[in-house]
Amino acid sequence: MEVTWWGHATCTVEDSDIRVLTDPLFAHRLAHLRRRRGAVPPTEARHADVALVSHLHADHLHVPSLALLAPGTRLLVPRGARRAVPGLRRLTHLDVSEVAPGDVTTVGDLAVRAVPARHDGRRLPYGPHRSPALGYVLEGEARTYFAGDTGLFDTMAKEVGPVDLALLPVGGWGPYLGEGHLNADRAAEALARLGARSAVPVHYGTYWPIGMDAVRPHEFHAPGDEFVRLAAVRAPGAAVHRLGHGESVRPEAAW
Q: Which of 119, 154, 188, 192 is the one with CA 20 to 30 A from 68?
């Protein structure tokens, strides 16, 4: 299996001859956010057998990016997403399914299981409709956990189950992280709780608010290295792969 990080929460996971794309975001700019590091993912990044959306926030459910996916691509979104995000109804070229924690979707020889996340599931700031924020566990030749956006929660290890690889958010897109997020320290604790053999830090060092380059810049640059350092203390048995934008790793080589 192989993982490529394209930036923010967008990754490609290839397992069991199935290509999975997480939280597709192919924009140079999103509202007040500008991509400051890494090129916009190339055309090849848009090709997937199944795309996963973790929650309704626009930097994770980005309708213009989803519109670029190839016809017939399966798209898993949180239950209630089509009611909350009318733009999803226009994506008639995609095979859209709504899922909730516990649901399992089979794609070829790969099982995709939706798991809970501790995060605000609303489509802010557009309306009151709420969908559950999700993570996903991919079960094929390996077991890979894509956390989406989440805070720590007491039943995380039980809900996610044993995994080989964890794709964990370690930062954000602004100088402060609100409730329901992992920073480098909390992500290292999550890795320890999960007992994963490998981890890739994501959701940092890509987007930053326009005009705020000098406001707490360490929150943009440092989370990946901080996670590597803290994971070595909290989960010394895990191999951490800090990827650059567009870089890939085959983590099973370290197992």
A: 119
Helix (H) or strand (E) holding 82: helix 81-84
- CA-to-CA dists, residue 94 to 51, 72, 77, 81, angstroms: 10, 5, 12, 14
Q: 56 in the Ramachandran plot: left (φ > 0), alpha (ψ -120 to 50) or beta?
A: alpha
pLDDT for res 252: 82
CA-to-CA distance for 231 and 189, rounded, in angstroms?
A: 8
The pLDDT tens digits of the residues spanning 169-203 come to: 999 998 888 778 999 999 999 999 999 999 999 99
Report the C-alpha gap between 97 and 217 in whole angstroms.
39
User: Residue with structure tokens 């973790």?
Assistant: 54
> What does each C-alpha distance from 206 to 11, 39, 40, 68, 87 come to in angstroms?
13, 9, 10, 20, 25
In this structure, how many other beta carbons lie within 10 angstroms of the beta carbon of residue 86?
12
Burial class (CB in 10 A: 0-12, 13-18, 19+), 13: buried
**Rg from Cα positions in the chain:** 17
Amino acid at position 65, single letter:
S
Q: Is the pLDDT score of 48 beyond 60?
A: yes
Query: How many Å apart are CA 180 and CA 177, to the nearest integer?
Result: 8
What is the side-by-side order of every strand in the sheet holding 74-78? Answer: 95-99, 74-78, 50-52, 18-22, 10-15, 2-7, 247-249
The percentage of the chain sitting over the pLDDT mark of 90, rounded to a whole number, equals 89
